[in-house]
Amino acid sequence: MQASLVRRQLATCLGARGNCLRAFATSGSHKMPLKAGDKLPAVDLFEGNPSKKVNTADLKGKVVIFGVPGAFTPTCNNDHAPAFIKSVDALKAKGVQSIVCVAVNDPFVMDAWGKSLGAADKVRPSGEYRL
Fold it and tell me: What are the recorded Gene Ontology BP terms (predicted)?
């Protein structure tokens, strides 16, 4: 229920193009910012293709999830994702078992982007394209 509400609000927000962050941040449907140990709502993400579904509830142990506005966008491609890819060893040393990158791209785009960045076995590129 919570996840579908967040999806609808994000879709509305993305369509607005104006005060997207303000509208979402003041919607009251979530707790921001999340803290370590906070439980995420169960949401399906997709890796590689639409049939490879991964639910956030199935992620176990210490997991880092970060979101980017879009695959192949200049800042995400040059700064955001590479910073996490370079930090994999340091994060693993702190007990992080999985690093997941989420964007509103389809899983094919996320897979291609992950490969282009050399993220294999480091960061899991996941798409949520149904917004």
Answer: cell redox homeostasis; cellular response to oxidative stress; hydrogen peroxide catabolic process
Helix/strand/coil for 79: helix
Q: Looking at the domain assignment, is residue 112 inside a domain?
A: yes
Q: Report the domain count for the chain.
A: 1
Domain with residue 117: its CATH number is 3.40.30.10
In a domain, 74, yes or no: yes
101 in catalytic set: no
The one catalytic residue among 13, 20, 76, 101? 76
**Which helix (H) or strand (E) is 27 found in, with range?**
none
C-alpha atoms less than 13 angstroms from C-alpha of 82 in its C-beta half-sphere: 10
Cβ 113 vs Cβ 127: under 8 Å: no
Q: pLDDT digits over 76-95, tens only? A: 999 999 999 999 999 999 99
